[in-house]
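<instruction>
Derive structure tokens from the sequence
<entry> Chain with its tokenised backbone below:
===
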Amino acid sequence: MQKIIINNREIMRSKQFIILIKIKKNYNKKILQIQTLCREYRKQFSKAYKILFKDNELCYLTEILDSAQEGFPYLWVNGDKYIFSNEVLNAGQQLLDYFFQLQYIMRSTYSKICQESCTFSIQQIKDQIINSIEKFDQIWVKFEKSYVLELMHIENDARRYIQKAIEIEQELESIEIREKIKGKKFIFNQDIHNLYKKLCNIINQLNSVANIEGKGRDDLQFEVLQESECILRKITKEQSQAVRQLAENIKNSFQKLRKLFLKYQQNMEMVDPQLKNNIDLVEALFEYEQSWEKGQSYFLDPKKLSYLVHFSHIIETTAQKYKHFSEQVECRDADIFLNIPCLMILKCLNNEDKNICAFFLPQLFQNDGNKVFLMLEELKKEFNEWKAGHTRLYEFHNILEKNLLGIQLSVQDQFAIEFCKQQIENMIHKIKQLAMELQRKNPSEWNSFLDAALCESLN
């Protein structure tokens, strides 16, 4: 057999040739009496593939030929390597080789027909064409069947996390309905807890391969959901709206994924096997990771949770007190990222920070001669002297607070501090310096803490 050199031009001609076969297939079957193999095996194909093939049609798809021509020995799906069997690879190579051989036969036959002195009879030419196309059809069927069925196997395996999640969700739904009829609360059912834990593990696996918008964490624990339930029962809005909102976000993101699994259950083939290509799944996983990551950091550690409740309470009560600050918080104005640490230093001076400042900046209370300790000691002295010299302490405290938050003072406020203006400016300067040190010591930890304290609804 003559060796065929494949290039782009030849491939384009090949596709045109396939199209010609499509157009002429019925004509060839009737005139040349070509016997093609049965396509009953296509009934095994999934809906996604069946839709590509018309009933009672040969359907030589150029996509099948492309796959044979590319000859990739493996596919990467969701980080897993799937290797095609030798049967598929050999069938693809055989199809490609014979396809170009068939082209050569057709061109050669046409050239012979065009010669003035033809040594072939019409019947010989017909027989050669019939035999060639019948052999081509046999080779095509062998590759198409093995290739598509193997692709379907790969796709089913790539969707295994979704399938497992659906199975758990079905079991969960059944138990929840039963418990609801009995009038029992889900939070006390151990079977439901066990299934929640299993579902969380599956979501972790999904998140690690499909969440291209986030970090793809696979270590988010079921206990985050448990603690969220406890927080919603124990912590009031007056104590911390942000902490309650974070707990709500954790619950809602979990429920959103459960609803998505039920949606996928109706038609599994709607799920792209390359899971990161499912926009609704990626979005739901991103929201899940975003809230559960915060929950894992702060809800599972009692000390951190108490810090977060107190910290967010300070921010929220200050926002209720000052409209200007409330608007800054709402639109995430850049000024709040210094103003809020200033508030914490002010609370520290009054011993009302519940050791949050000591947690983020231990040097404040380490008497080893470091500059922040010395600055805080000096500031405490000035602050206490300032407090001792004023009978209307609450009024003067508010004026200091307004200065730190950048809120314009009224004429009355300005008049009240006229005699101690320099003293206030000195204290504000030191508070701002310490506030910058507070957020700079461990910036990633501080920013995460602040982000959790400013938690908003995901909806």
Summary: Residues 161-300 form one domain.
